[in-house]
Design brief:
Elements (H helix, E strand, L loop, with lengths): L6 E3 L5 E5 L21 E3 L10 H4 L7 E3 L7 E2 L12 E3 L7 E2 L12 E3 L7 E2 L12 E3 L7 E2 L12 E3 L22 E3 L22 E3 L12 H7 L4 E2 L4 H10 L5
Parallel strand pairs: 2-3, 3-4, 4-6, 5-7, 6-8, 8-10, 9-11, 10-12, 12-13, 13-14, 14-15
Antiparallel strand pairs: 1-2
Length: about 260
Amino acid sequence: MCSWYGVECNDKKEITSLFVVYQRIDTIPPGSLSQIKTIEELTLANNKFTILPTNELNQITALRVLDLTNNLLTSVDKDVVSGLPNLLALILSGNQISRIQRDALDALPRLVTLYLDENKLSLFKKEYIEKISTLDFLDLSQNPLLDIEEDSFESTTQLTNIRIENTFLTSLPETIFNPIKAKLKILSLADNKALSFLPYNLFEPLTSLRVLDLSRLDLSFSFPHYLCSAVASGKLGVSTNMSPYINRICVRSTPKF
């Protein structure tokens, strides 16, 4: 099997990676995966799954990366990934997920990376990730998000990289990033065309922030001018296509005290 396309093995001829993509499958035959206990990376992208094959997945305890990009999942239910204690990355991009059941992701004690982009989430709740204390990267981009609960990041204090791009958000709670102010290094809010107002002090507590992307946002009347000195000193980097906008605003505006 180690010579098959989409299969990778270790020196002991044990399967460690399995890629089953563009096969239009919507189910996994019983026993076909659960018998392979050594799989660390499983990619089932670009298929037709509407529900996750719980019985099969939860027996692959060595799994570290699970990629279900571009399937037809509509929800993430409790116990779906409860048997994956070593999972580091869960990739659910490009599905139709509109609901994440409370506690659905609680049994992932080592999860570091979570992709929820390109789904149908209109509200992001604290309960979705409050038990994932190890989370480092979160992508919520390209969801029809109307609101993010103010305390969403209260328990995920290790987050360093957040992407919330191209949503329907019109504003953000002023203290939403405070729980991760000492850790957050990269934040992208690009392409949120309805996001015309940001609380003035939204970014001020973020002492570790090194990259900020506000590309294609109309913040002419609510730009936080304390960012000007951070950019000028080199402590904060901005995306290339955002630099002319930053320079124009900072030059023509007087800092607010």
